[in-house]
User: Fold Glycogen synthase from Candidatus Falkowbacteria bacterium RIFOXYA2_FULL_47_19.
Amino acid sequence: MVKKLKIVFISSEVSPFSKTGGLADVSRSLPKSLKRLGQDVLVITPLYGMVIDKAAHNLELVYENVDLYINSKDIVPVNYWRGYLMPGLPVYFIENKKYFSRRKSLYGSTHENARWMVFDVAALKLISLLKYKAHIVHCHDRQTGLVPYYLKTKFQYSKTLENAKSIFTIHNLVFQMGMNWWEVPLKKKDYGRSRLPHLEDKSLEYINFAKRAILSADAISTVSEQYREEIMTPNFGQDLHRILKNREDRLFGIVNGIDYKSYNPYNDPGLFKNYDYRTVRRKKLNKEYLQKKLKLTVDREMPIIGLTSRVTFQKGFELVCQILEPLLELGLEIVIMGDGDKQYIQALKKYHNKYKNKIVWLPFNDNQKLETMIYAAADIFLLPSHHEPCGINQLIAMRYGCIPVVRRVGGLTDTVTNFDNFTGEGTGFSFNDFDAFSLFGAIIRALEHYKNRKAWRDLMVRVMQESNSWKIPAQKYIALYQKAMRINNNKKNKK
Ligand code: GLC
Assistant:
């Protein structure tokens, strides 16, 4: 068994360079944890010209004007830049004017598939240029979906990559390609085996990157055990449940962690008052501070509910908006931070106009300070997701003693256990059905419990001591890499 693995990590967003969601956190923290566990890791990601400041991140140019032979017709030039996530852990950036530099946002172009096809070839080409004889190429979500496919086709004879095994991690199965998979006309549906179209060919936009990855990867993983089970069913499988079920023996679930160093209420510089589970009473001072700052009614005893997810259907805003008014009548305060769908944000603004000192909505701010300040000030964290591959914010909230109220779905099932009044066990309040009534019921249970000060403090203390760092998940990934290397070797022996 190889002890020190060479791992290439390919991701479309890596914090602190670029971020739209949890994927960026995983792409930052998991490579670091792997490195700390003695593995050799490098990360590859795009250079979004208008998002990533080369000078601020000290990026250096390593290869200039490299021609990528995407296919017989398309030759695309790229540059490669290098920065570091930590000493000894390089991040390589792929630069190309047309596909990445001129863009203000990470995604959302009408030629998404063309962009990511270029990226995927560029990533594989870089590994060859570096002569990095990787054991594992670990890809994330649809943007990197052609990498496992290319490893079995176009790049199968590459000297550097011939022994590399690919892992494809699903962070959200809804996203399979540039366009919505359900908008692809039936006749144009990608069955996953045909030759890839040229860059300018419109039919390229119908290629299903996630499907190709699932069909080609040596192992597939997703970000919680429960979501692994769910995506093999028609309800959650987003039309790919059959192929996932067929590859069940190669499909694994590993729950995400959070970076325990950067999310620690004991020394978080963003808080008004630092605390840990021994001094949790100081949380109230953070509450007062935030109430003043956001012009809410200042009252230490008033429960605050915090929400810090994207304001979308997935995150349960369909339900939240239905119960906001009766909730606000109960005598509590609500703080919401996140961007998302206009219809929900407009509704939130409307409630703010009506209940000025009771509810605020703040746009997403990449500055971690305000986010953790909300966890430090709030009593209850709400995440009533429709589907949730893992969910990261409930883990951060728990570390700050902010008790989660969640729907029992995906990773929320794995990370939050429902509080049981009789045994006194549990780490939050959860409900089953995706309807506003069930959500309301769960919040009421939490609020009732909140009234009993001692019981609530005991709950906070217990929840803050839960262990959700990356250490164990990173070890599980290493075991998965080792397994992926074995799965294929066995196959070879049989031949
Ligand atoms: C996606 C999922 C979320 C998960 C994150 C990181 O954003 O929606 O549940 O936590 O990826 O894996």
Observations:
- Residues 21-23, 26, 171-172, 223, 256, 388-392, 411 surround alpha-D-glucopyranose (CB under 6 Å).
- The two ends are 21 Å apart (CA to CA).
